[in-house]
Amino acid sequence: MAISLVTLLNTIDFHFLQPLPCLSVDDREIIMIRSLCKKLRFLQAFLEDSQKKNINCPAWRGLETEIRDVAAEAESKIELELYQLYNEEDAPVEPYQSLHQTLQQVTRDIESLEGRIIQIQIESNRNHSVEPPRRNAAIENIKADCSSKRSSEPNNVMVGCDDEFETIKHKLISDSKNLEVISITGMGGIGKTTLAQRVYKDEAAIASYFDIRAWTTVSQEHNLREILCDLLGSNDTNLDVSHLESKLRQKLLGQRYLIVIDDIWSIQAWDAIHRCFPEEDFRSRILLTTQLKQVANYVSSGNNLYSMRLLNLDESWDLFYKRVFVEKRFPLEFEKVGRCIVEKCQGLPLTIIVVAGLLSSSNKPSLNQWENVVANLDPLLNTDPEMKCSKILSLSYNHLPLHLKTCFLYFGIFSEDEAIKVKELIKLWIAEGFLKIELNKSMEDVAYDYLQDLVDRSLVQIDKWSCFDNKIKYCKLHDVLHSFSLREAQRAKLLFVIKGNNNVHELGLATSSSDRKACCRVVSDQLSNEPINPSRYTSHTSHELRSFQYHQGIGIYYRKFIILPNSKLLRVLDIRQYRLNDLPREIEDLVHLRYLALRIRLKTQYTIAFIDHQWCKLRCLQTIIIDGCWPCFSPNNILGMPQIRHVHFSKRTLHHFHLLKLVQENLQTLSWLSLPHRLRTEPDFKGIPNVKELGIQLMDYKDCYDMHSLSKETWDLLPPISMEGLLKLNQLENLKFKTNQWSPICDIKLQKVFPPNLKKLTFKRTYFSWEDMTIIHTLPNLEVLKLRYNAFCGPEWKATGNGFCKLKYLEVTGHSTLEHWSVDADHFPILECIFLNDCDHLVEFPTGFGEINTLQLIHLKHCSSSLVTSAKNIQEDRRDFGDDKLVLRVFYTLPEPKVEIERGRSQGDKTGTVYMSVMYL
Fold this sequence. Notes:
Radius of gyration: 31 Å
Helix content: 25-40%
Oligomer: single chain
């Protein structure tokens, strides 16, 4: 897999061709660089085409390997030349000449590969020596194996998904006179085909309803002739395709038919099949299964798309039990171990079936044998290439384009079962150089499209949605897919993962020095008191290390960080979970850094040295995240970096006087910006016109270390700070205000300073008056409002009149002074969710919310029982009017919450209320 070709193109664009390049070169050089990129894209098209056609010619395969190696070597050479240039304040002529010569040599190397590809193509066309196979042989083997197993096991039982079965069955026999297309989508091995079979073979409803039923399996490389023969039940593959199409159309005409199209992979395949069906459908139906959501969305009629879910623990055990215990009659003492095995399978049906088959195949089973399976289940299931689960995952993975393969394998850097914050993932993808450059599209948007594509292909799961922009907030990988990504990343020489005590064998990862040298990215959670030294994970002669991330939980000790010369090409350095007590000056020499994340506690003796760092040398830096306790730090140069996009500092670090007058168009995220309650002049935000997310911390006199020269009396005479400059931030969508937890109550009045495009607004410990809410409710585009820990204070919030015209999510947390809250429906006309937490003194849920027809969820946590009762009454009133969409979720904090739960059960509570207990000791 030519990861190196994708990153080489990205590197060249990043340093030379983007609107604000890291290095300015003359027009003659630009012409040569653009020509080089054109040749690289030719190589990329060759690789994508050979992958698509699965060409197995040795000459072509050898070229693929050579392209990968040449591209990797070229990228290293170019970056090493740039390393010399970027580390020279006044670069002499020689380094520029050396860079020019390197680019010329790279161009010659690429031209040589380009010429050989063209020659092979000419010879192949002349001799017909390369004929792309009709379908991938490995895929055919998988299909044949699975098909034979299905045909030999007619009693294959579908476990779980009873609701989905009934829904799909009734949709198939509905009264709709139009042709309906119903799609089942989900990850490989989740049971799409099994569910479709269960529906297809239902004798009571389906078989008796349709005149004709037919089934075809499409696979990746669809063959229309074979598909038509399947649907016709014919073995004559010599007939012309147009004749077969006409024959099928004639057979279906005037009949009520059910066609199942299993395992379809492309829209093109659907279009080819769909035109064969007659226009007169007579309530006919098509049932389709696919791993690709984009295909399902394209073909489905109306709201007829069903996403398969993973089995819960009970359903998983039921499937395992039927596969093992019923057939073999194992003693009951095996059940405890069996349940442990099932839990490790994480609800994926195919995985459960494979493990069940392994255990039931033994003639003399023993508990010790089963316990060994528990201890070794992950490597057993996820590293053996012969296991069917791995094969099906490979099928989905191999269908990915080159750039998506890289992004998918990168998930191996995260821990198993980790909920991955999408914003962080996107920043890392961008920094690593995995993205294809697209005109008129930001890199963040390109990266999100990549993620959405992986989700639609059922390779990545959505863990949590954002509450205001309908985007994915957290994602994760199923355990099986995570292990698969780790294994494939190792094979592709992308990652080198080090587990605790260097026990990499637990993951099946090689530990040889050659593997370490080849891998560009190192991830470690190694437990050690030694200083961090990323270089010791590569050979002393290697310049390949591009990324080092440390993922161990934050420890209690502050240790040293060592950087050696062979880390000079680092792009990503994330050691925020490793607490440092100082920062080596060598870090400023890592001029290729694009992503830097640290956690540090500076002692007095290190402060001056740290402030003196030449941060301006990190001209490639895009993301900087620095957490920790700072006695004194002045990041004067950081906001001035030309490529900087995302800046996050802990409190009391970044101040208003660090804002630059020089416009920084790339900057999108800035937090936390510390502003004093009192200031003579307003902060100047002109230098960050395109910022989309801004976090502001309001500081009192005690917090303002830089103003200690002022007496408290002088401070009190200063006017309240004005932030009218925020009105100029037209791109700002997410704004956060907070004060220090131990600061005195803020005496600033809320001002009309919010830009019109603001969509999300968060206040925390700002102690504004509820009367100031009239300023916020007029914001035309506000969708999310979060009021946390006395953001507003006072006993009564009276929300009346028109307002919050687009607000969908409202959160009120930790408002201990709020006792009465009156609401009119017109004040929250399209509200969908309200979240109340730790509102101790609020005894009644506002009845006005019951009149908001769009309200779908009321979430109450740590609230009084009287407030919960009133909210439940609103839900019951809505049900009386035939509206059962409102869901009430309750987290009780009562002394005896179990009594409330049992009372609800004994009364036959069918209101949809979900009770979750929290016991305080």
